[in-house]
UniProtKB/TrEMBL annotation:
Annotated Gene3D superfamilies: Glutaredoxin
UniProt-recorded name of the protein: TlpA family protein disulfide reductase
InterPro entries reported for this sequence: Redoxin, Thioredoxin-like_sf, Thioredoxin_CS, Thioredoxin_domain, Thioredoxin_ResA/DsbE_sf
Record carries keyword Zinc: no
Keyword Amino-acid biosynthesis: no
Xref: PANTHER family: PROTEIN DIPZ, THIOL:DISULFIDE INTERCHANGE PROTEIN DSBE
Originating species: Chitinophaga rhizophila
Regions that span the bilayer: none
Keyword set, alphabetical order: Cytochrome c-type biogenesis, Redox-active center
Domain Thioredoxin: 53-194
Pfam families in alphabetical order: Redoxin (PF08534)
Compartments (UniProt record): Cell envelope
Length: 194
């Protein structure tokens, strides 16, 4: 009689929920998967406005490097629209938004007016590149080759910044967002066509 109560549906469900919650707390991949699911149902949408968006201040300069030791500055990209994403491999919200960033990247990767910079904030290029390769993303990986200005990266990751062709910050989002949806793709495209 006591054993039947122990294995009741209520106790089994409680056990499963407890295990799930523990996994969410200790495993970044589980948390990222849950966030990706929430993105697919419409949560975590980036806050975008219509085409009459007003440009903000000029983006401060900083340097980046790739895995081959090639270095360049943000100011050297003037004339191109820059999608700049600061992230880390251990960050569940960063992991959650990567598929949507990859979707946006695939759409614009051949456009000579666009540059995607996914910047590992830990400065560990090999680890970041391994993560991108393991998950079969096409995204280019960079690390900061100078101090990261607070105007670009605030107090949390992921942080995404869009810089217009004229070098102005036109979008900044702290926290995960779905950058692969049609509304954001249209928003991003308006800066490329300008």
């Amino acid at each position: 009689m006591g054993i039947k109560r122990f294995f009741s549906l209520s106790n089994i469900m409680s056990g499963i929920m407890t295990i799930f919650l523990v996994l969410m707390l200790v495993n970044p991949s589980v948390k990222a998967a849950v966030m990706q699911g929430l993105m697919k149902v419409g949560l975590f949408q980036p806050g975008v406005t219509e085409a009459e968006t007003v440009e903000m201040e000029a983006a401060p300069d900083m340097a980046f490097s790739d895995g081959n030791g090639n270095s360049f500055t943000l100011s050297s990209l003037r004339g191109k629209v820059v999608f700049l994403n600061f992230w880390a491999t251990w960050c569940p919200p960063c992991r959650a938004e990567m598929p949507s960033i990859n979707t946006l990247y695939k759409k614009y990767k051949d456009d000579k007016n666009v540059v995607f910079l996914t910047v590992d904030t830990d400065g560990n290029y090999k680890k970041a590149k391994h993560f991108i390769t393991k998950h079969k993303y096409d995204l280019p990986v960079y690390v900061a080759d100078s101090r990261i200005p607070g105007e670009l990266l605030g107090k949390s990751i992921p942080t995404t910044v869009i810089i217009s062709k004229s070098g102005k910050v036109v979008y900044r989002q702290e926290g995960a967002a779905d950058y692969g949806n049609d509304k954001f793709t249209d928003y991003f495209g308006q800066y490329i066509r300008k």
